[in-house]
Amino acid sequence: MALTNINFMMNLVDSYISGKITRTDFELDFRSELSARYKKMAREDREYAEVFYEWLSDDGVDSGDGLSDAAFKRLIKHQYNEVKDIAASGFL
Question: What is the DSSP string of 6-24?
Fold first, then answer.
């Protein structure tokens, strides 16, 4: 099965990390898109969706309040790379 929704969300995060969208736009889009896509993501790959949610939503975007823009971007980049590493290892 194609990971259309998971890939969309990973690309959204990458767009922020690479400077293509602002923090404000990213935070708004991230929450909105994740809310709309999470069930579809879970159908595509439940484990990937759960890892994404834990690392990039709970421990990423939702933990960013009070951080400077630079610190927030570092946090999101770190969390994004962790998700990629976990996915590459096969979720073991």
Answer: HHHHHHHHHHHHTTSS-HH
